[in-house]
Write a structure and sequence with these properties.
Largest sheet: 9 strands, mixed
Strand order of the largest sheet: 16-15-14-13-7-12-11-8-17
Structural class: alpha/beta
CATH architecture of the largest domain: 2-Layer Sandwich
Radius of gyration: 21 Å
CATH topology of the largest domain: Dihydrodipicolinate Reductase, domain 2
CATH class of the largest domain: Alpha Beta
Oligomer: single chain
Bound molecules: alpha-L-sorbopyranose
């Protein structure tokens, strides 16, 4: 390791995503041969005592109380943005203009306009060898990476249907507090952007086809929630009782939409049309904790995935005997994406590994002087779908082109 060039990281934010990214920066070089050696150089957060404690816990060498300092520091090569969406554009553009590589959490921004400015900054920076990536971490699930490989290898034939659900239940309790994820000015949207964005990105990435139009419904079931409260996990425990102060929820609790995808040569079918899709994102599906599900039906077979069983991928091959049914691929073999760098066959991975794989792919791209994927342009396309869903929902579900 001592002969490897360092990649000195400055991270902004240290809550859930900050913790996931910290462990990824630490762990990636221990399990993968990286061409650059990540260093956890500085952590930025506004509160001196809190950021100092977080840095000690998560393993960062120094702290800053203003993210602008990270951008000024000469000993920072990459800025990792783990803050709510309202700050992504300003931090990412400033970092790229200062010559720092950027990893930015999803969704890329809170509006298409911001995402466009970020993409322009990313394009200009890439011309100078400064790279950026958006953290659509589910792309790094071995089973979903295998699904993409199988689609590319033609195992499904022409894809007809995309069925994507992202189901959680942490807001089912009407007394869960009003956190930043429920404030449109901070998060941009609710279930739609927080979790639906993952489904949109995964569907477009695996099929290789962009969504071209949508018809949508958005719903906010609980319109007011307790202000403050004990922020445990995602939802936390809100204060209860009569005198609790409540504030307005300004985002969607659930989003559903139907979609058309573009046609392409190999995937267009004889009619020339692309697949049709149904998407659902909610935090009110009681009992579903992180059921990020994707099912694809093609002319030769089907694939099905559920993150609650993340080490498995179900495959139906129409060439098998008619009664063979779906087979379960346990995605832990050395030839499966990412799996060979971890444990012996069958021992399985977890949520945190996605972030480690994200670091591995990002570092390889930077060292190889290649643009990492998903690029800000890929994330801008997702942002356009999010905006089209909102526009359609506002117009009584009228068809909205992306
Ligand atoms: C909360 O809904 C959340 O943490 C998302 O913000 C993440 O992107 C997803 O991976 C898990 O759920």
């Amino acid at each position: 390791m001592e002969h490897t060039t360092p990649l000195r990281v400055g991270m902004v934010g240290y809550a859930f995503m900050g913790a996931a990214h910290s462990q990824a920066w630490r762990t990636a070089p221990r399990f993968f041969d990286l061409p650059l050696e990540p260093r956890l150089t500085a952590l930025a957060g506004r509160n001196q005592a809190a950021v100092t404690a977080a840095a000690a816990k998560l393993g960062w060498d120094s702290v800053e109380t203003d993210w602008r300092r990270l951008i000024e520091r000469e000993d920072i090569d990459l800025v990792d943005i783990c803050t709510p969406g309202d700050t992504h554009a300003e931090i990412a553009i400033a970092a790229l203009e200062a010559g720092k590589h950027v990893l930015c959490e999803k969704p890329l921004a809170n509006s298409v306009e911001e995402a466009e400015r970020m993409t322009a900054a990313a394009d200009a920076a890439a011309a100078r060898g400064v790279y950026s990536m958006c953290g659509f971490s589910y792309r790094r699930t071995p089973a979903l990476a295998l699904a993409k490989r199988m689609v590319e290898d033609g195992r499904l034939g022409t894809i007809r249907h995309v069925r994507a659900q992202y189901l959680q239940d942490w807001l089912s309790d009407a007394n869960a507090p009003l956190t930043w994820r429920l404030d449109k000015s901070k998060s941009g949207s609710g279930s739609l952007g927080d979790i639906g964005a993952h489904s949109i990105d995964a569907a477009q990435w695996i099929t290789g086809l962009n969504i071209t139009g949508v018809s949508a419904l958005l719903e906010t079931f609980v319109k007011e929630r307790p202000v403050g409260g004990d922020f445990v996990g995602l939802g936390g425990h809100g204060a209860t009782g009569g005198d609790v102060q409540r504030g307005p929820v300004t985002v969607d609790d659930a989003a559903i939409f139907s979609a058309r995808f573009e046609a392409n040569g190999s995937n267009g079918g004889s009619s020339g049309g692309g697949p049709i899709g149904v998407f659902e994102a909610t935090r009110f599906a009681l009992g579903r904790k992180n059921a990020m599900r994707l099912e694809l039906n093609g002319t030769k077979g089907s694939l099905a995935f559920d993150f609650e069983d993340m080490n498995s991928l179900s495959f139906y091959d129409a060439a098998d005997e008619p009664d063979a049914g779906f087979r379960r691929i346990f995605v832990t073999e050395p030839e499966h994406p990412y799996a060979g760098n971890w444990w012996p066959t069958g021992h399985g991975l977890g949520y945190e590994h996605l972030f480690t794989h994200q670091v591995v792919d990002l570092v390889a791209a930077i060292a190889g002087n290649r643009r990492p994927s998903p690029s800000f342009a890929d994330a801008l396309q997702v942002q356009k779908v999010l905006a089209a869903v909102e526009a359609s929902a506002e117009a009584d579900s009228r068809w909205q082109k992306v």
